[in-house]
Design goal:
With about 950 residues, the protein is of the alpha/beta class. The chain is about 30% helix and about 20% strand. It is built from 27 helices and 41 strands. The strands form seven sheets. An eight-stranded mixed sheet has the order 1-2-3-4-5-6-8-7, with helices on both faces. α22 crosses α23. It starts with 14 loop residues before the first strand and ends in a 17-residue tail after the last strand. About 5% of the residues have low confidence.
Length: about 950
């Protein structure tokens, strides 16, 4: 007999899951304590569903049936249940069978599987989710195949099996369909799983952002307080659904607060409530959640504080809150949240503490901090930017940035995603989702708490051991635009939301201040852009001159983007004109309309109203109906090449003008949520400093390049001399039948043997514990040789004098040995070795390691203390492609040393790229290889030499991204 408290109970099989419609359920093993739940569940199942399950009328379960279905050994017989509110809504079980279909034990590797789903919950994806989990359980118990008998009329269940993506066989026997499924995950089954995950999580977010009705629980009767403020904000925003106020202090009957119906509890409302905003003290939240769960509320926004941010008791209170909400099938934002906003005309939801909802726009904003959320809303509002949606998640105990990436990927109202993150609970998943979203629309991230080394208060998430620099590099590899400050977040968001992506790094600069133009020029060089010579229009330039110069610059095929610099201009009588900025804004907007595929940014100083006028979504000044002909400016710019007039702002952009990233070469086609804003709605971003404008433009250039390259991601290394099977056998032998979970570091000979299976040759090293054996080793290897110490404190530190090179004969070797031991210590302390000399080149380091949260990472840098001090190391996720290896070498700041710096000969970078791909293949093929270090790797003009290698093995860590879908439980 097994209960949930029994040591044999497999608690790790428990999981919270998101169903197809966005609701949640809990999956857990069935125990002997579930007899009454099973009977109650079965009574709610229709006769037809019972017939499909048992192939005959089966109105009720006998006592023998109940005993059989609740007693499992969790090895050969396993039953799982999906529950909501503690009650069963579906069950699945398997029974191990032999080749004759009779009950069996291991080593039999086949099991018969059967499902039963309550009719009211059919169509929610419950059976598909249960199949993922029971398949994972079966694989854990050594079962490789499922067999199922299904009646031909049971199309829903047949579809569950056939759509799972597993390898399968199908036959018709004795009036039923016989299905056999191979449970080994496939590319197709993983794709199916992730597609279902995307749909479910996106819908769970949509249920919160577009509710039909909202109840504010904790709205006070007197003005003031959080609940009353949220209620007021909901009404002021013009929410299109129904609004209710709930206050348990109200007596029976109908009441009103802020002019809306108010009740003592949800049950008195008399109609469904989709979203509940909880603004009550933390000790009253459980009662409110129970009320919500029992009355069918779909989601919660918990504004209440005093949770994990307040210490250990609050952390436990937060975990209990999540468990309670999920037990009712609800998802939640918070606790300690600032709220959510949806500006869509069909919704107009402001369920937040922001007193004024931002205007509608194309930016989706997620922040884990209420204070930062306030600052970002204020900054975006001040600069005229609109939002599609805003979420401030607080402690993000349930819904996180991953969920909103799922939603924004296919949201047609969002063109740019901005995120302020203080922690990433599942970096591997976040990177995967960010890469997919970035292929359709920009994802801009600023990360707080990067250097604190600890999780921010309130964020009960695992802490990755990977340094922040590595995480940042991997996010950039995924196409994420990573910025350092919230100011840069807004700067980049404004440009990406209002302008197309640049086709390249060439930047034209024009304006009426030579000094401001030079500052912009210098900033472009600093950011790696290719600025053209600035065009100075002089301080006497008028808005018409700006328009003509901008039209000419945009028409120049040698220009990919334009930065306009502007200071107050000199009027007719010599007076400085500081406004009206609207006049200049109109001129710039009309000019920009002539080349809708090229971005324009403005740097301005003390021109009143310019930024506001440029950010306006529509023109306020009249415009002629024909193509704009550039007038002759006072200072004539270089003659543009002959070109046909570009279309007006009101005309269709065409293939090159979508914002962002609409150029034909901007990368993969737009995803489900990509959209093409009309040009007349485009805003020209304005910046108070040249550096800020150029930095935002540089991020757009780098992102556009990533989009183009993402269309052709490259190929993994394929080499005929790789012995994958031999390496697997060697690893199995080295780990042994009962491997130490802490792992083991291989000896030098064993590491060399394993690396050789993947075509990685390590130059032999012979020990030299005394001068005589040093001489003997040199004779075996052949002169000239190197004498090196291998003591941990001296290893890879030639600057400390522990290396002697180019020892041509026995005399030089013995003298070097004596000097080494005299200055650094005894031979037993130094552990000297002798190695044959190799061709000179550039010393580099290649490493690979596995982190449980982020996965396998390939790293590259130059050897030496200087690179370590500067942190000059590049990283890529494994498996790496040839494109990744190519970029990896060029990503470090010291890369010029590889390509002939200061007249030196370039080294053999193709050989180095091949080495990186071989290491990537080794770690990707064998997850037991948890760390590889090759140091130094000397790259010469022709070929390379690996002089030192270390390999660490451990039992393969679990791949959480390959397992069944489950919500995190922190």
């Amino acid at each position: 007999m097994t209960t949930a408290s029994d040591p044999a109970y497999p608690a790790h099989w428990e999981a919270d899951v998101v169903l197809r419609d966005g609701g949640t359920a809990r999956i857990r093993p069935i125990t002997t304590e579930d007899a009454e739940r099973l009977v109650s569940f079965y009574e709610l199942v229709s006769d037809e569903s019972k017939y499909y399950r048992f192939f005959a009328p089966y109105p009720r379960l006998s006592a023998k049936d109940v005993h059989r279905f609740t007693h499992h050994d969790y090895v050969d017989r396993v039953g799982l249940a999906a529950t909501i509110g503690g009650e069963f809504i579906a069950t699945v079980r398997y029974d191990r069978i032999n080749a004759q279909g009779r009950p069996a034990s291991a080593p039999a590797d086949e099991a018969e599987v059967a499902f039963l789903v309550q009719d009211a919950h059919q169509g929610r994806g419950v059976a598909s989710t249960l199949l993922e989990h029971i398949a994972a359980v079966a694989r854990e118990r050594g079962i490789r195949r499922f067999a199922a008998e299904v009646l031909p009329a049971n199309n829903k269940m047949i579809k569950v099996f056939t759509d799972a993506g597993y390898q399968q066989k199908r036959s018709f026997e004795d009036g039923s369909v016989h299905l056999t499924l191979d449970l080994e995950p496939t590319i197709e089954s993983l794709a199916v799983q992730r597609a279902r995950e995307h749909r479910a999580e996106a819908r769970s977010v949509r249920r919160l952002l577009a509710p039909g009705s909202v109840a504010v629980i904790g709205a006070g009767r007197a003005p003031g307080g959080v609940g009353r403020a949220v209620l007021r904000n909901l009404l002021d925003a013009g929410f299109t659904g129904r609004v209710h106020a709930v206050n348990t202090a109200l007596g029976p009957g109908r009441h009103e607060i802020e002019g809306v119906p108010a009740y003592a509890g949800l049950g008195a409302i008399g109609e469904p409530v989709d979203l509940a905003i909880l603004a009550v003290p933390a000790e009253r939240v459980p009662e409110a959640v129970t009320d919500c769960g029992e009355h069918g509320v779909q989601g919660l926004v918990v504004l209440s504080a005093a949770y994990a941010e307040s210490g250990a008791p609050g952390r436990e209170r937060q975990r209990a809150l999540v468990r309670q909400a999920r037990s009712y099938g609800m998802r939640l934002i918070g606790p300690n949240a600032f709220g959510i906003i949806n500006t869509a005309a069909a919704v107009r939801l402001n369920a937040s503490l922001a007193p004024e909802a931002p205007p509608a726009g194309r930016i989706g904003l997620f922040t884990q901090s209420g204070a930062i959320g306030i600052a970002l809303l204020s900054g975006l509002y001040r600069r005229g930017a609109g939002l599609s949606t805003f979420i401030s998640s607080g402690n993000r105990a349930d819904l996180s940035g991953n969920d909103f990436l799922q939603y924004w990927y296919e949201d047609p109202d969002t063109d740019v995603v901005l995120l302020y993150l203080e922690s990433i609970g599942n970096p591997r998943k976040f990177t995967r989702l960010a890469r997919r979203t970035a292929a359709a629309k920009p994802v801009v991230v600023v990360k707080g708490a990067r250097h604190s080394g600890a999780t921010p208060p309130g964020h009960a998430v695992p802490v990755t051991r990977v340094p922040d620099a590595t995480v940042s590099a991997l996010l950039r590899q995924a196409g994420v635009i990573l910025v350092d400050t919230v100011t840069e977040l807004v700067d980049a968001g404004l440009l990406l939301a209002g302008q197309p992506l640049p086709a390249g790094p060439r930047v034209a600069i024009l304006g009426n201040s030579e000094s401001l133009g030079l500052l912009t020029y210098d900033a472009c060089l600093t950011e790696g852009l290719r600025p053209l010579k600035p065009l100075d229009l002089t301080t006497g330039a008028t808005p018409a001159d700006f328009r003509a110069a901008l039209v000419a610059a945009l028409a120049d095929e040698a220009c990919d983007a334009v930065v306009v610099t502007a200071i107050p201009w000199v009027g007719e009588h010599g007076a400085m004109e500081t406004g009206d900025g609207q006049v200049l804004a109109d001129a710039l907007r009309e000019a920009a309309a002539t080349a809708p595929a090229k971005p324009v940014a403005v740097v301005h100083v003390e021109i009143g109203g310019l930024a506001e006028a440029l950010s306006a979504a529509a023109r306020t000044a009249p415009r002629a109906a024909g193509p704009i002909t550039p007038p002759t400016p006072q200072i004539t710019p270089p003659a543009p090449p002959t070109a046909q007039p570009a279309p007006l702002a009101s005309e269709e952009r065409g293939t090159g003008g979508s914002a962002p990233g609409g150029q034909p070469d901007a990368g993969p086609g737009p995803g489900p949520g990509a959209s093409t804003p009309r040009r007349e709605a485009a805003r020209i971003p304005a910046y108070p400093a040249a550096e800020r404008a150029v930095r935002a433009l540089a991020e757009a250039v780098r992102y556009a390049r990533w989009r183009r390259e993402a269309a052709e991601p490259g190929k993994a290394g394929e080499y005929d001399d790789i012995d994958e099977a031999g390496a697997a056998a060697l690893i199995e032998r080295l780990l042994g039948p009962d491997p130490d979970p802490r792992g083991l570091t291989l000896s030098a000979p064993k590491a060399q043997e394993l690396l050789a299976r993947y075509g990685i040759a390590v130059h032999p090293t012979l020990p030299a514990p005394d001068p005589e054996r040093a001489v003997e080793a040199a004779r075996r290897l052949g002169y000239p040789v190197a004498l090196k110490t291998t003591a941990p404190h001296l290893r890879h530190r030639p600057d400390l004098g522990g290396v002697r090179l180019d020892l041509a004969d026995e005399h030089q070797l013995t003298r070097a040995y004596a000097e080494l031991t005299a200055s650094l210590g005894k031979p037993e302390e130094l552990m000297p070795v002798v190695q044959a000399m190799v061709p000179r080149g550039v010393d580099t380091v290649v490493r690979a390691s596995i982190d449980s949260a982020i996965g396998a990472v390939l790293s590259f840098g130059l050897a030496g203390a200087a690179s370590e001090l500067l942190g000059d190391t590049a990283h890529r996720l494994i498996p790496a492609t040839d494109r990744d290896a190519h970029e990896l070498l060029r990503s470090i700041r010291t890369a010029p040393l590889l390509f002939g710096w200061r007249g030196s000969a370039p080294v053999d970078t193709p050989a180095l790229e091949e080495l990186l791909l071989r290491v990537s293949r080794l770690v990707d093929d064998h997850p037991e290889v948890v760390a590889v270090g090759l140091e130094p790797v000397i790259v010469a003009q022709h070929g390379l030499s690996v002089l030192g290698a270390s390999v660490r093995l451990a039992p393969a860590p679990p791949r959480t991204d390959l397992g069944p879908r489950r919500l995190p439980s922190y």
